[in-house]
């Protein structure tokens, strides 16, 4: 079961590149666990004719700089890469304007984006769903990302769509970020099957108080987000899996969305444990609550050892 990722805007492309790096690194560290490695690589990568791992991803931005940097970092790692024909960029940004992205750039370029997505879908033996990665503060991630999600819902109506959103700092530099955020959520809430939110302020506190990073950069924040996403999306041993790795977290969620209840719509990711499928399947009692906080602690992860879990819990509440 394969997941096609759409990385939108500067934030989405940078976090997406870190996520694929984490997934590839974890798969290589788990060489003895052949099932884990096989399932994880099958889900997020395909192999080209040279045997290289190629991410099942489409990179979209209205400026080329970040996409070029992300593709170069992936290629320089020597472990995986992005496809040469899986990206789209222009020379003019969206100016941190949601309406510019949604009403101008989105409709203007949607046919090209749909073709890139179609190619990635055709490379999948079996499609589990889509994951879009974007920030809600700027114009391309929020505006174009929302329009692309709308297009995915129309074209792949039965596929599961997970939107990963990076929530801006409370004192951000984008003066219209509140408007961009509200407009994005208002649309995605009606289109998406699940929304997973990372708050920059919370992740910043994790970097400062738990990881003891003195001078926190966006790379540090992106790396923490990527590790948390990796713990959610990668194969996991759940309480009722009987020693078998879960193969398809998005597919499990898809089985529960058929009733079109609204309990699964919004997840807040402070810290996450890799039991996503089990938790999705056990939330029927929450059907009256559309906003859900998911705050499970990873039991074993290099970034968050067990000794720091109490500190993580205090940050989440």
Tell me what you see in this structure.
This protein is an alpha/beta fold. The chain has one domain (2-316): Tubulin/FtsZ, GTPase domain (Rossmann fold, 3-Layer(aba) Sandwich). The protein contains eleven helices and ten strands. An eight-stranded parallel beta sheet has the order 5-4-1-6-7-8-9-10, with helices on both faces. Strands 2-3 form a two-stranded antiparallel ribbon. α1 (9-29) packs across α5 (140-155) and α7 (200-210) crosses α8 (218-233). The longest helix is centred in the middle third of the chain and has 25 residues, at 98-122. The radius of gyration is 18 Å and the shape is globular. The two termini are 35 Å apart. Residues 253-264, 270-302 and 304-317 have low confidence and may be disordered.
Strand order of the largest sheet: 5-4-1-6-7-8-9-10
Write the CATH fold name.
Rossmann fold
SS class: alpha/beta
Uncertain stretches: 253-264, 270-302, 304-317
Task: Report the CATH superfamily.
Answer: Tubulin/FtsZ, GTPase domain
Radius of gyration: 18 Å
Helix content: 40-55%
Strand content: 15-25%
Largest sheet: 8 strands, parallel
State mean pLDDT (0 to 100 scale). 79
- Counting structural domains, the number is 1
What is the H/E string?
A: EHHEEEHEHEHEHEHHHEHEH
Head-to-tail CA distance between termini: 35 Å
| CATH first level | Alpha Beta
Number of helices: 11
Number of strands: 10
Give the second-level CATH assignment, the architecture: 3-Layer(aba) Sandwich
Shape, principal axes of CA atoms = globular
């Amino acid at each position: 079961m394969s997941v096609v990722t759409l990385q939108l805007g500067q934030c989405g492309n940078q976090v997406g590149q870190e996520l694929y790096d984490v997934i590839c690194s974890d798969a290589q560290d788990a060489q003895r666990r052949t099932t884990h490695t096989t399932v994880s690589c099958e889900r997020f990568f395909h192999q080209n004719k040279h045997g290289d791992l190629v991410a099942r991803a489409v990179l979209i931005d209205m400026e080329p700089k970040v996409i070029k940097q992300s593709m170069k970092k992936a290629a320089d790692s020597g472990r995986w890469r992005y496809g040469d024909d899986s990206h789209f960029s222009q020379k003019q940004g969206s100016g941190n304007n949601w309406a510019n992205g949604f009403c101008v750039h989105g409709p203007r370029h949607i046919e090209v984006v749909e073709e890139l997505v179609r190619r990635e879908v055709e490379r999948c033996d079996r499609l589990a769903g889509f994951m879009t990665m974007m920030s809600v503060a700027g114009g391309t991630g929020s505006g174009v990302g929302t329009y692309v999600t709308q297009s995915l819902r129309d074209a792949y109506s039965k596929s599961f769509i997970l939107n990963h959103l990076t929530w801006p700092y409370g004192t951000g530099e984008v003066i219209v970020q509140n408007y961009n955020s509200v407009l994005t959520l208002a649309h995605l809430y009606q289109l998406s099957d699940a929304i997973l939110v990372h708050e920059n302020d919370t992740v910043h506190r994790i970097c400062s108080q738990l990881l003891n990073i003195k001078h926190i950069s966006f790379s540090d924040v992106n790396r923490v987000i990527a590790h948390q996403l990796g713990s959610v999306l990668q194969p996991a041993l759940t309480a009722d899996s009987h020693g078998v790795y879960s193969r398809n977290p998005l597919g499990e969620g898809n089985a529960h969305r058929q009733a079109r209840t609204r309990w699964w719509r919004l997840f807040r990711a402070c810290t996450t444990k890799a039991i996503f499928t089990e938790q999705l399947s056990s939330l029927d009692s929450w059907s009256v609550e559309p906003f859900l906080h998911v705050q499970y602690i990873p039991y074993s992860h290099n970034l968050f050892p067990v000794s720091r879990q109490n500190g993580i819990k205090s940050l989440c509440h």
